[in-house]
Amino acid sequence: MWEYIYKFDIFLFQHIFSWNGRRMIDNIVYWLSRSGDGFIYGIASILLLFSKDPLSFKLFLAGLIAFSLEIFIQKVTKHWVKRGRPFDRLPGVSSLIRPPDRYSFPSGHTAGAFLFANIAGEFLPFLQIPLWSWAGLVGFSRIYLGVHYPLDVLAGIVLGFISAELGMWLIF
After folding, report:
1. Nearest to 26 by CA among 146, 157, 156, 151
2. Fewer CB within 10 A of the terminal residue: the chain, N end or C end?
3. What Cα–Cα distance (Å) separates residue 123 from each residue in 38, 113, 118, 128, 133?
4. If residue 114 lies in a helix (H) or strand (E), which one and from where to where?
5. Are 87 and 94 in contact (CB under 8 A)?
6. Domain ranges in the chain?
7. What Rg, from alpha-carbon coordinates, does the chain have?
8. Residue 103's beta-bridge partner residues?
9. Assign residue 91 a region: left if phi > 0, alpha if psi is -120 to 50, beta otherwise?
10. Which among 20, 43, 44 has a CA at the least distance from the CA of 33?
11. What's the distance, CA 11 to chain centroid?
């Protein structure tokens, strides 16, 4: 069963990765991926700290706890699993973006994007679908750019949601 899942993961990666090579789309996907680098989370945190809304400080704390938990679990998991990145393991694959670290599983960009989308969407429900769509595009971009496999992205989604829920549960 694991062998079938692994082969499907590789197949799906190769299929998505084969779509790149179109300069304009590559640039759009590159910037989508970069939007998950964390600067959006920093800007949102600063805005929360200056907000007069009584829930803003609780939301800030929930996000701080959630991101701390997510980063810790992500780093421990990456060094425990030690899954090489696609461009290191598959012939003919080169990344279109520089990854922040050596290992691939789970996708930290995807985890952070879904964590942010989950917390922000909880308190701004009218933005929930656009935020989840953006987070999904961040995850997709990581495959398209050659730095993650689909299972890395799926694990990032789960990690992001669980971390966000725990952060909110602890504060609210």
Report:
1. 146
2. N
3. 19, 16, 9, 9, 17
4. helix 108-123
5. yes
6. 2-171
7. 17
8. 84
9. beta
10. 20
11. 21
In this structure, the number of other CB atoms found within 10 A of the CB of residue 130 comes to 12
pLDDT of 155 reads 98
**Two tokens, residue 10:** 């590789």
pTM over 0.90: yes
Which amino acid is present at 102?
R
Reading the block at residue 83, the tokens are 């899954």
- In this predicted structure, the answer to whether residue 165 has a pLDDT above a threshold of 90 is yes
- The SS3 of residue 84 is strand
Distance CA 172, CA 170 (A): 6
Residues in the chain: 172
The pair of structure tokens assigned to 105 is: 């599983």
pLDDT for 49 equals 85
Q: Kindly tell me if the per-residue pLDDT of 147 is higher than 90.
A: yes
Q: What are the catalytic residues? A: 109, 148
Sign, Cα dihedral of 93, 99, 105, 106: negative
Number of H helices, E strands in the chain: 8, 0
